[in-house]
Amino acid sequence: MNPIDTRQILNWDQVKVHIQPNLCIECQLVPQQPLQCYRCQKSLCQTCHADLKQKSRGPKIFCQKCKALNYFNPANNAIYQSYRDMVIGCVNRRYGCKVTLDYKKYQKHVEECEFQRIPCPSPGCFVTTLKRAKGDHLQVCEYVIETCQYCNKQFNRKSMAYHQEKCNGKDVQQIDLASLKSDFLRLRSKLDAAISQFEQSAEIAMLEQKVIKQQLEIQQLKNNINQ
């Protein structure tokens, strides 16, 4: 957890008398989850503790106050009490976040803040963007991984257009096109046959009507002659 810069404390003048004695003895920032020297009770932030522990290569680390190798343990409640009245501006204030918080809520907010800058997750892209704008960046990022619709291989967006020009999947396209063309011709043939059959049926119906009409005319003539 990164320590809090005293410049983020909006009411620093009012609370510094309580906080200054409990700043990290190495970086002079406000620790999150502070540690304390078991001998002098001075505070150390997690970041500085990790760096010093790596240098010491042992369970004890050098305390700037005691000038000796000592153990550092989780801070007691008195340390946390000295931090309780702080009004802290978000570390992402310069990027547009206007939230102010107390010490307890600060870390959770920073982890979730929509104004924090994050790296693009696409391999090869070195752009950092606001968390809230991640989606907008991914829509145009050339390094987003996509799957070829023909061969199912994966390429970044930058390479996909070139790949699809050369992809063997184009053979699949040609096969699909030939198959569609064959289906079309088969259906067209059936349609033509149906139309022809319909036309023939209509022609027969017209001939039948003419025959019936002629039969009626003949019968009428016979009737006239017999009279």
From TrEMBL:
PROSITE patterns: ZF_TRAF. Residues 109-160 form the TRAF-type domain. Gene3D superfamilies: Zinc/RING finger domain, C3HC4 (zinc finger). InterPro entries: Znf_RING/FYVE/PHD, Znf_TRAF. PANTHER family: CHROMOSOME UNDETERMINED SCAFFOLD_56, WHOLE GENOME SHOTGUN SEQUENCE (PTHR10131:SF155), TNF RECEPTOR ASSOCIATED FACTOR (PTHR10131). Keywords: Metal-binding, Zinc, Zinc-finger. A zinc finger (TRAF-type) spans 109-160. Signal peptide: none annotated. Pfam families: zf-TRAF. GO terms for cellular component: cytoplasm. This is TRAF-type domain-containing protein.
